[in-house]
Each structure stands twice: as structure tokens, then as C-alpha cells.
Amino acid sequence: MRANSVVTTAVDWIDSRTGIRSILSTLLDEPIPGGSRWAYVFGSALLITLLNQFVTGVLLSVYYVPSVDHAHTTVAYIQKVVPLGWLVRGLHYYGASAVIIVLLLHLGQVFIWGAYKQRREAVWLAGVILLNILLGFGFTGYLLPWDQKAYYGTQVAAGIAGSIPLMGEMVATILLGGTGLGQSTLSRFFTAHVFLLPAAIVVLTVVHLYFFRIQGPAGPASDTPPAPETTERFFPGQFFKDTIVGIALLAIFADLALIWPAPIGPKADPAASFVPRPEWYFLWTFQLLKVIPAFVGAVVVPGLLMTLLALAPFIDRSPYRSIRKRIVPVALFLLVMAGLTGLTAYALYQDGRDPLIRVQEESMKRFMEEPFVPDTIGEPPSDTQAAASPTAKVPDAYTANCAGCHGDAAQGSIAPALLGVSAKPKRTPDDLVGIIKNPEAFGLKGMPAFADMAEGDARAIADWLATTKK
Amino acid sequence: MAHGSSGPGDGQPVDRRSFVGTLAFLLGGLVSFLGAAIAAVFTVGPALSNRSGSQAGSCPVIPEAPKGSQSGPRLETVPVVMSSGWSEAHIKQPVFVDESADGSVRVFSARCPHEGCRINWVASSNEYLCPCHDSRFSREGERLTGPTKRGMDPLPAKRNADGSLEVCYKTFALDTPDRIEVG
């Protein structure tokens, strides 16, 4: 009892100076009509996922450098060298996708349950703005690793911005920080991703929660309010459920990071060909672009959908919340979601059958397995620089048949570099001729066979490759 | 759990003792602790495992070092590779090269053994002076006055037949009476 009174005295002392009890009461004693439910976890789950992004994002910035020279190396360093770097980056990578998934669940539930009704338009509007900020996070974060995927994905996005009538060129120039994708682009995407958008999201989240607390939770999707005696406070019931779901989410991210390490591909190379894909939550608009003009598919359609979403509480104005009395809006919402999901699934299906995409994925996998190579800063003293050996002329047969995938000087592109390849086991000039004619016989699955190539041409390529050095 | 109809902020103290509430706090605390541990390993790990410093065991050559004059030691730079995190930087470290008339050569690190500032040679008083905290050293590198706890750090050096100088650059722990090599 004595220890108890000491604690009470200490808490009283702190409370009289900080008002901690009333702060806790505000945070924890919010009444929940109808009591706590697992169905109410989505908002908190989103908040916890965002917190994960904040913490891991700050940690990543310990090593990340937003420079076109070094960004890619620093991300590879985090992934391959830093202790638990794979975990921190994996939590951020999978957390980013989870933000979108949890957000869609949260939004979908609010929509289907009609929870934007009963004076909750402001909560809803703040939520729609938050959705856009989160998509902005995804868009800007995608470029930061500065690998092929990042570079070409952003290149295409800039092209889409350029397709806007009248002001397209201006929008693209402002987006890129100039007429081309380069250091200015990376710098401004970095600033947006780590300073502007986080500030915006903190403010909007506070506003969203403030409006939410003014109106109170909507409760079940029913037109008869729950009995007052079933009301529970947020703590402990809902607090417990939210905590469990939050921990489960973090555990899932960590698991995913362990099983499928967050990917990074070869460094962005404007000279190498690459088939870009946006992040999965933009795939539906990418799929639309295959059949309709860029401006319509990537600006008009998403813009209209977003406007409709924002206006939902003003269009759906009936006082009823139960789904049976809101068949039309609920059906429309589900129809649009099904359409987006269908487009996304179709895009994934087509990519799954695209050999070029597979080759790119293999090249990414190879890069992930390669040991880390540090960046060199400054020039080594001139006398220690190895004199570059003069390389023999590249055979025409190589340029015609091999350069497309292996690079015009065998430096590697979507297929591996071949410089110094004959130093490796089972890669003598004779073997190389055999590989050119029948790569499968050497266990090489991604490479096409050149069975019809003239013996002399294959020999010329193999002999030339044998003269190259790594 | 009893949930009264009283709303928050009505002055009634709320009893926070409940099994699920405590469990949630404990689990949340455990995960936060795990997160902090991950953050600590992530941020501190590379600093401990990959000590930044000059390349160990290499003795770069200063090409065609001109002969030292009687007036005093000369400041030279030694190329070293500093590996730090994701980078390997080619930098130059300052050393004093002092050759006597008989051809023997003496090389000192120009880093002050006190707090690592760059030492200067002051010809007028025929001594080394560190401008940061006024540590003074004789031409032989011995401590004269000031806060430094030891004399200047000598570096192994060798004159090659072609006139170039091989200097094995090293760094030592700062502000210790003994010379402890750190990289």
C-alpha cells in the first residue's frame, strides 16, 4: 500500500504540472457507441502503418544520399551491408504497400457503412486529401533508389504529365526540375518525400482526427443507434484490438522482408533499354493507357474518380446508413473497385507472360545477389591508375545480335555484362560459341538461341569476348 | 469492466486497471523496445564493424619528393583511401618530411596528437606549433609545451633509389600518453 501511495503522489505531482491525466483521458476515453469491435481497427491500423513509415524512413535517411551518383549505392549498402538494413528497408518497402491496402480497407468500410453521413463531410474530405498525399508518397518514393525501375517509371510519369493539354510541358518541367530527368528531379522528389509530404500528412492527420473526434465514431451501419448502455470507452477494449492488429501488421512486414527481400535492381542507366512498370497501385491506370490516350487514362479518369469520391457525402444525401437502403452508391463503389482490381489483375497477368519483364526480374535478382561494391570518391593518384588495355574492335555480329541485351560494349544491360567472361569456369571461347548456339545446354534459360548464326561470326564474338577484361 | 455514462473530462478519475489494457501496453512496449533495438543496431552497427580510417597496411609513394632544405621540414601529402560507409574516398593526408644532411629522412604525421588539428612548422622559432591549443614540439617531434600528452607521431618512411619516398600513413588515438594505432 505504501508503494501505491508513493506512485499516486508522484502521478499527482506530474499531473499538477503537465495535466497528463486529462491528456490521457482525451486520448483514451473516447466513447464508442455499441462497444469495441475488430471491425473498427482500420483507422488505427493505418496510423500504426504510417508510424512505421516515419520511423523506418528516418532510419533509412541515416545512410541514404539523394544524389544521382550515390543514391543507388547507398540503397544497395543499406540492403546488403548495414546490419538489419534488409529489415529496416523491408519494413519501409512493404509498409508502403500496406499503407495503400489498409487505406483502401478503411475507405471502403467508411463508404459502404455510410460513415461519411451525419455531419461527417469534413472528416471525409480530410480523408480524401490524405489519400492523395499518400499516393504522392508512393510516387516520389519510387524514384529514390535510382535503379532502372525507378528511373523509367518516373520518366513515363513525366511523359504523362506532359500530355496534359496546354500546360503539359510546364507541368512536366516543374515536376522534373528541368526538361530532363536528372539530379534536380531526384532532389525535389527527395524533398517532397521526406519534408513536404510528411509535414502535410501530420497536419492533415491531426485535422482528420480532430474532425472525427468532434462528430464521434459513426458506429455500426444501422439506422437504429446502438443502446447507450453498450457504449464502451476506447480504452481498454478497442485499444487492445488496435494494438494487436498493429503488431500483427508489423510482424507481417518483417516476415515479408525476410522471405522476399525488398528489391533493388541495377543502377539507372539512360542508355539501357528497360520496360518500366509503376508501383502496383498505379497499375490500373497503366493498363488503361494501353487502350486510351495518356491524358485521359492517367489524368482525366483518376481525376474524375477522385472528384466523385470527394463529393460522395454531398451526392449520397439520404439520411440512411444501412446498406439495404443505399444499394445504388454501394453498388457503384463496388463496381468501380472491381474495375480497378480487374485492370490491375489483367496488367499483372500480361506482365507474368511477358518474357522481357521476366528477363528484367532476373537481372534484378542477379543484382540483389551480387556483393556490394562501394562508390569511389575522388580520383586515385595518377601513377596507381591501371593503364586501360586497348580493346579490339567489336565484331559486327556482336553488335547485330548481342548488343541489344548485353550492351554495345558487353558492359551489360538487361542481360549480364560479358567483360572478362572467359575467365569464368565453363566459359572458354569454345564454350561461348556453344552458348551462342544453344544456351539451354549450358543452363542459361533467359537467353535466346542463335542456332542459325554462321560459325565464323560466333567464333569472332567468342574470340573478341576473350580479349575483354572486367 | 464498468463503463459509466460519464464522458471524458468530467473530472471523475478513470480506473485504468484492466487485464487487456495492461496486456496491450506490455505488448506495445515490447514492440517499441524491439524497434529501438533494431534502430540501434542499424545506426551503430556499421560504425563499429567498419571502422572508418585510412587504408591499413599500405605505404603509398610520394613521387619524386624534392630534397628537404636545411631551413626546416616540408609539408607533403600522402594519398590514402578512406573507407567510410558506402564510399571509398581517395584523400590526401598531411605529413612533415624532414631530411638531414646525411640523407636520413624523418616523417611525422601533421595531425596533432592532442585533438587532431593540423600542425604548422614555424621556421622563425624552429619548432612545430599546433594552432588549436598551442601545443609546441621540437624539430625532433618531442613535446615542448602545451596540452598534448605525447610528442608528434612518427611514420615509417623509406627513400627509394629513384628519389621517391614511401610513407606508411597511420592514425593514432588522440590525447593519450601512449601511441595507440587506430588505422
Care to describe what's here?
Chain A is an all-alpha fold and 470 residues long. In chain A, 62% of the residues lie in helices and 1% in strands. Chain A contains 18 helices and 3 strands. Chain A has helices at residues 2-18, 20-28, 42-60, 71-80, 85-112, 121-143, 148-162, 168-176, 183-215, 234-259, 283-289, 294-315, 327-352, 355-369, 396-401, 403-406, 429-437, 455-467, and strands spanning 31-32, 232-233, 375-377. In chain A, strands 1-2 form a two-stranded antiparallel sheet. In chain A, helix 3 (42-60) packs across helix 10 (234-259) and helix 11 (283-289) packs across helix 13 (327-352). The radius of gyration of chain A is 28 Å and the shape is elongated. Residues 384-390 of chain A have low confidence and may be disordered. The model of chain B is unreliable at 1-11 (pLDDT under 50). In chain B, a hairpin with a 5-residue loop joins strand 8 and strand 9. Chain B has 183 residues and is an alpha+beta fold. In chain B, the strands form 3 sheets. Chain B has a 5-stranded antiparallel beta sheet with strand order 1-3-4-5-10, with no helix packed on it. Chain B has a 4-stranded antiparallel beta sheet with strand order 6-7-8-9, with no helix packed on it. Helix content of chain B is 17%, strand content 30%. The interface between A and B is large, with 51 and 40 residues. Strand 3 (375-377) of chain A pairs parallel with strand 4 of chain B, so a sheet runs across the interface.
